Amino acid sequence: MKLLNFLRGETFARGIHPPEHKHTAATPIRRLPWADELVVPLAQHIGKPAQAVVRVGQEVVRGQPIAKADGWLSVPHHAPATGVVKAIELRPTARGPWTPSIVIRPHAAATQEDLWGVARDADAMTPDEILQAVWDAGLVGLGGAAFPTHAKLKVPPQAKVHTLVINGCECEPYLTCDHRTMVEEATALVRGIALSMRATGAVRAIVGIEDNKPDAVLAVKAAIAQAGLENVFAEAVPTKYPQGSEKMLIMSLFGVEIPSGQLPVSLGMVMNNVGTMAAIGKLLPAGQGLTERVVTIAGPGVARPGDYRVPLGTPISFVLDWAGAPRDATSACQLVLGGPMMGQAVAALDTPVTKGVSGVLVFRREDMAERDDRRTYPCIKCGQCVESCPMGLNPSALGMLAAKREYDEMGAHYHLGECFECGCCTYVCPSNIPLVQQFRVAKQVLRERAASAPAAPAATRS
Amino acid sequence: MSTTIEIRSAPHIKTQRSVEQIMRNVVGSLLPVCAFFVYQYGVSALASLAVVTAACLATERFFVKTGTQSGTLADWSAVITGILLALSLPPAFPLWMGAVAGIVAIALGKALFGGIGFNVFNPALVGRAFVQAAFPVAIATYTPSFLDGRFTSFVPSTLAWPLMMPADTAAWLQSLHLDGVTGATPLAKWKFEGVAADPLQLLSSLSGHMAVGPSPLLILVCGAYLALRRYLDWRIPAAILGSAGLTAFALYAWNPARFPDPFFMMFSGGLMLGAVYMATDMATSPVTPRGMWVYGGLIGVLTVLIRYYGGLPEGVMYAILIGNAASPLIERFTQPRPFGKSGLLRPRRGATYALHPEYISREEAGATTPKKRMPINKPRK
Prior knowledge:
The structure holds two protein chains of two kinds. Chain A is an alpha/beta fold. Chain A is 32% helix and 18% strand.
């Protein structure tokens, strides 16, 4: 592996290369029809849930704002379809908790065009206007983190941004939505990059694309040349997981490590996902809000896998029926939102597709069997996890401490806080130890202890 | 809506590689070595391999059944212990002593600590260390390889009755009328008679009636296969052979009359088997890459020093056991450096893009006014 990396050019140290399974890479994006009922949760982003500005029974048109942002890290939401607001009530989300949601019943006869937006000259906007427009469009990071884009593009007052890094790596197996976006919407992508550069004051932008997507590299390069931008570059980087991580991609491109505990902005960089940039390039000139996104529907249990343009709020059960996932009692299966390495298992089928969902993967019972039937052994200290951890941690030692519940020791001496839960260690572990799962628990315990810590010393002192 | 969906935590996929698969591959890579060992020494070696491995498996089964240790027979780790133990013993070692070695290896070397993954010392070497102390004469008695009739009759010592002293191999060898053949290994010959064998002959083990163990060349080839498939870490054998070779070379350069050729040191005795298959035992070696270099370096130096200055001709076993004991300590001081914890921002050479020039100037400015705008992250104590 090391030798191979040497031949292919350097990226970051360690990491893994799982089978890619990018079967949908060559299929164009298709549009999914509208479901009978669209559920728009008010919390599709980190930060406070948005506030509904419509009432039950109100007629809405597609693209109309139906919820306004509540606070800096909140974004507005827009009606994904022309129809009527059926209810505003608690609905389950993919992660489990029930959250207030706006339920819209689309009109069957509507043409479902975006009726709300007013086109404007985006190129004439000032940086502040661009940021405001991004916020108004309800944009969050479409790669999966769902961090509000305007907050990311807003440069802190003490910092200066020189370089915009665009993440086109998509290192997770199965996912191809960013790949197809780069191929099909390269013009919008480049336009979004130009607008974001203006908003942040960056003097150059670099699109990092993994070299397993040569057509995307060509498409983006062509779009850059067509737009006549001299300081925007598309760069192929060797394929490796987890290159989609900010720190790893910056290491691959610039050969520097972002100091621990700091953001790329401390090095004068801001990173965004290609899907987000393409959305900016499309929505800002049209003056529209985000009402749909590209989702990869794939996995061994899907009969018609592909990349679909899905209206936000479409229930996952509808998506699965459309893509041909078997739904009989014998094939108990697992549904994953996002990629197989870091994605979230779905708790219920009636949950909707939200802004942060990049993929819906279906694994059948027999696909999971291979992993389930494997025996779990004690750590044999093979060192595979140490060889694969991109953050340079020692998951073997961390795992043994986690088994003994010595969470403080893990945080204090083994740098648990650096772990960003990419799952490489668990992927390679021959003993089948749920390492990253243990680390999640440990981090949660440490967070809770830290939250309750200030009270404890005060009590002992008094 | 009748689908049963399961909720699990990511990652949702895994590699094919499992503990059983690793162990099976190690056993597989040992088969050519075993085959050549049997070809060299005939039925005695075959019986030794079978009996020692069976003793290991039976002991493992006993402790797993009684719940004393974790693991199963199906994990193949006891097979590895058995084969390695048998290969490290003289080919005509009395079978009952071999069985004792196997029982001790698993019982004291593994079950005592809790089974697979928990053992501190390499079980095979624990077994060998035990019989080295218990049966010092038998373990020093090697028979020459490629004897006529090795496939039709056992060496008399092999079939000794339990708890009885084995038959005298030296008298039996003389009865075969082999001129110039003694039972001493090349290391013992060098140590006690001052005669060093030709390293190339040792490496191939194909020359005449030398009393050597399993072929170093074959072990090297099989080990290289394992290292390429990443079933063992190449750093450990490289460090051991490198440091043993360098130490031997330093001493040879200092006094060629007293110390042998470094290649003789590297290819004789059990060094190759120890370096490739025993020191690389995953459970008993450090997991950190830098720790592996330290651990291997320690074993290599110790091996040569024990061979030159110790009372025994062979030193690999004790060197590895000491290395095993030191490995937790080594690991503690060689933890990997986490990403972004260096506090230095020096771009890797050959990076595609440079940091922005204005940023670099800020970093340099930050060096004169430290910890203001660019707080350097110190590793927590």
